[in-house]
Structure formats: structure tokens, C-alpha cells
Design goal:
Length: 314
């Protein structure tokens, strides 16, 4: 096996769970791509899986020469397999792995248990514990050390993730895509911004007719803008918004503060509070209600997000 990064191989379980995969896009503009789909509902991240309950045992995928210390017994499951994003949970024994070849994807990581220590190619060391979130950027090289009962949630862009696996299965790697880049370092999500400190005021983007109640004064910041993923923090006043047009992107949401109530087109209601995470799938319609001091972290696929923003500007 070629040298592949540790969390990339989460598809040991996820590959067999692609029953959640949406049909392939047939082309056309953003609206046409999602109108043809059955209106989907938000997907709550399975709390048992996040807690490490009954995770599926996987085949070892780290090459012996890359296992610097410890043991390797991967466990994990797919939580969401959408048109643009994949969300998985992964757990392994304490170990240190060499990341010799450039990391083939942008990967958002939320540490759920244990401790993660990443050392980049320049020797810079960063430590992350349960509750910390970070981006492992495409092109990263160094070492990946997991301590304690290590468990993580990851979000990756689907196409790039699948391509990396195809390359691995064919005996190649995604190295050629990123080898010309300077090896980047992991990016810790800014804790002040996550806490809502000094967020920038934004321009209102909800049409007045879609504000069913409350007010709309968006605040937020970009936390990461990579080759494949964008991570942002967003805050707004209490309000209920109509999502009349199909949601244009897959959007991973971590509720940081307040309460979110989503009602889909069939009238199904789901409530989420601080600490809950979910996927708002591409094509969702319904209502979006924010209560209290609402704040969220979102992860989206870059190209689709930028295309949707351009459509809104028109």
C-alpha cells in the first residue's frame, strides 16, 4: 500500500455505506441540480457513534514502515455521504504515524476524545484535545500522533476523497496534485471567533420576504479557506427564515450557542442546541429558526459555496 494519511482511510467503513449517496449531478445551474432531487431532511450526527459506541472495526491501512510507534486498530463509521461532503467518525489506538506524502485532501477535524499532536515538516508542534477543531490542509506532511482513547469527527470533500482512494487502490497516490505546493501546517480554529468575540458585521443576505419573524443582523468570520473546504463562524439575531429555494450546498453545522430548529418540507421538526452537529443537505427546503444568542460553525465545499454566492450576487 502506498503511504496514505491516517484519517483518509476512514472509508474502510464508509465505502460500504454509500447508500446515503445522492444521485450524480446532471448538469445545469445550481437551482436545476437540486430541484430534481427529493427534498431531503437535515441529518443529525449520530450521538452513539460520536461517543464511540459500536464503531465498525476496519482493516489496518497504515503501512508498517509509517507506524513509528504504538498499534493500529482502526474503528469507525460513515455519518453522512452527500453530494459534496462526507462526514465520518474514526477511532484508533495510541500511535504515531509518519505522513511522508502530501495529505491528499482538505480535512476538517473535531477531536472527540483523547489527544492529537501534529508536527509539520518544519518541526512546528500543535496539540489538540477533546473539543478542539482544526483543518488539516491538503499538502500537509509531518507526523500524526494520537494519545489516549483517540476519536475524531472528520469532514471532507467527497470527490477529492473518492479520488484519493481510487489512486490508492490503483497503486498510485494523490501526491502529484499537491507536490508543487509548500507543505502547509494544520490550522487551529480560532477560539475567540468560536466564542463570538469581535465578529465582523456582515451585509444582510436574507430577502425581507423570507424573514418570517425576528431580525437579521449577520456577524461572522472566515476561519479557513482552502483548496477544497471553507470553514466559517456565523452569528445572527433570533429569527425564523423561510428556505423556499432548495439549499444550494451540503453544509456541515456545529451549533456553538443558542438553539436551531429546522422544519423540513414535510413538516418534520428537529431541534439542535450548543454542542450538536448536523448536515443540512443540498436541496433542503423548509424553515430555519434561530433562538437565543445563536452562533454556528459551518463547513462547506469551496467551489459549490462560491458558485452559490455568485448566484446570489446576480
Amino acid at each position: 500500500m502506498k503511504k496514505i494519511l491516517p484519517t483518509l482511510m476512514l472509508v474502510f467503513a464508509g465505502a460500504s455505506m454509500q447508500t446515503q449517496a445522492a444521485p450524480e449531478e446532471a448538469g445545469g445551474n445550481e437551482m436545476e441540480e437540486v430541484k430534481a432531487q427529493t427534498t431531503p431532511s437535515p441529518v443529525r450526527m449520530n450521538p452513539d457513534k460520536l461517543a464511540g459506541v459500536d464503531l465498525t472495526a476496519g482493516e489496518p491501512f497504515i503501512a508498517p514502515e509509517d507506524l513509528l510507534e504504538g498499534s493500529h486498530r482502526p474503528r469507525g463509521d460513515s455519518l453522512y455521504w452527500g453530494k459534496e461532503l462526507v462526514v465520518e467518525v474514526f477511532e484508533d489506538d495510541p500511535a504515531t504515524h509518519a505522513i511522508a506524502e502530501p495529505f491528499p485532501v482538505d480535512e476538517y477535524v473535531m477531536v472527540l476524545s483523547g489527544k492529537l499532536i501534529l508536527t509539520d515538516a518544519d518541526g512546528q508542534v500543535q496539540e489538540f484535545v477533546a473539543g478542539d477543531s482544526l483543518m488539516v490542509p491538503k499538502g500537509f506532511t509531518g507526523t500524526w500522533q494520537m494519545l489516549g482513547n483517540y476519536r475524531e469527527l472528520i469532514v471532507v470533500e467527497r470527490e477529492s476523497y473518492e479520488n484519493a482512494f481510487k489512486a490508492a487502490e490503483a497503486g498510485g497516490s494523490a501526491k502529484e496534485e499537491v507536490k508543487v505546493q509548500t507543505a502547509p501546517s494544520p490550522v487551529r480554529m480560532n477560539p475567540d471567533k468560536l466564542a463570538g468575540v469581535d465578529l465582523s458585521a456582515g451585509e444582510p443576505f436574507i430577502a425581507p420576504e423570507d424573514i418570517l419573524e425576528g431580525s437579521h443582523r449577520p456577524r461572522g468570520e472566515s476561519l479557513y479557506s482552502g483548496k477544497e473546504l471553507i470553514v466559517e463562524i456565523f452569528e445572527d439575531d433570533p429569527a425564523t427564515l423561510a428556505i423556499a429555494e432548495p439549499f444550494p450546498v451540503d453544509e456541515y453545522v456545529m451549533v456553538m450557542s443558542g438553539k436551531l430548529i429546522l422544519t423540513d418540507a414535510d413538516g418534520q421538526v428537529q431541534e439542535f442546541v450548543a454542542g450538536d452537529s448536523l448536515m443540512v443537505p443540498k436541496g433542503f427546503t423548509g424553515t430555519w429558526q434561530m433562538l437565543g444568542n445563536y452562533r454556528e460553525l459551518i463547513v462547506v465545499e469551496r467551489e459549490s459555496y462560491e458558485n452559490a454566492s455568485k448566484t446570489e450576487e446576480k
